[in-house]
Design a protein that fits this description.
The protein has 204 residues and is an alpha+beta fold. The chain folds into two domains: 2-111, Serine Threonine Protein Phosphatase 5, Tetratricopeptide repeat, CATH 1.25.40; 137-203, Roll (2,3-Dihydroxybiphenyl 1,2-Dioxygenase, domain 1). It contains ten helices and six strands; from the N terminus they run αααααααββαβαβββα. It has helices spanning 2-7, 14-26, 31-43, 47-59, 66-82, 86-99, 104-110, 127-131, 148-159, 199-203, and strands at residues 112-117, 120-125, 140-144, 164-171, 176-182, 188-194. The strands form two sheets. Strands 3-6-5-4 form a four-stranded mixed beta sheet, covered by helices on one side. α4 runs antiparallel to α5 (66-82) and α5 runs antiparallel to α6. The chain is elongated and about 70 Å long.
Length: 204
């Protein structure tokens, strides 16, 4: 299977897909064939079908060798990202972290970076990823924290990093305790605690 995986890109992808479909009709649990069809679909942009076949192939034992598994799980992770299934994509990428597998190509192809602290998680996209949705940067991101202390703590962390602090923490007349920071790409982060809104309204 590995030789077919590595070299199928050098031939027409439509004919192999048709042949594999015929073979799979006769052998519906042929995991390697299903996975290989998924790789063909990946190259022709059939994202939903590709994901379905790759996941089905994995479940049927197509990843019997580590190299095969890397190829399939790499495409699976990219497809989940492209289809907006970010939580599932994170779990797929976590497989590479558990295996200690890193590569510049993997990081570049993902186009997303997930960051988290406590119960807060957000995703940042690179230029190529945003382009497919018509988004342009830089952007302004608002982070609503739970207290003034949390705002101060985050300010201290970011102030000691490469972030550029645009303003220091300060209570504003409009009821926010806030500061603003910028990352190296010029994106702005407005970090604040809303001390003016009653707690009942916040929880509503």
């Amino acid at each position: 299977m590995i030789s077919m995986m590595l070299f199928f890109g050098s031939i027409s992808l439509s004919q192999p897909g048709i042949s594999l479909t015929r073979y799979i009709a006769l052998n519906p649990v042929a995991g390697p064939a299903i996975a290989l069809r998924g790789l063909c679909e990946f190259e022709t942009g059939e994202n939903s079908s590709s994901l379905q076949d790759i996941e089905r192939g994995l479940s049927l034992g197509a990843a019997s060798q580590l190299r095969n598994e890397q190829i399939l799980r790499y495409r699976e992770a990219l497809l989940l990202t492209r289809l907006g299934k970010f939580q599932d994509a994170l779990r797929a990428y976590a497989w590479f972290a558990r295996k200690g597998i890193t590569s510049a190509e993997l990081i570049e192809e993902i186009g997303l970076a997930g960051i988290s602290r406590g119960h807060c998680r957000m995703f940042l996209a690179n230029t190529d990823y945003r382009a497919q949705y018509g988004n342009v940067g830089p952007v302004l991101i608002w982070l609503n924290l739970n207290s003034k202390e949390e705002v101060d703590d985050l300010y201290r962390v970011w102030n000691s990093s490469k972030a550029s602090m645009v303003s220091d923490p300060e209570s504003k007349p409009w009821g926010l305790y806030e500061f603003t920071a910028a990352d190296p790409d010029g994106n702005l982060f407005r970090v604040f605690y809303d001390f003016a809104t009653p707690q009942g309204d916040k929880d509503a």
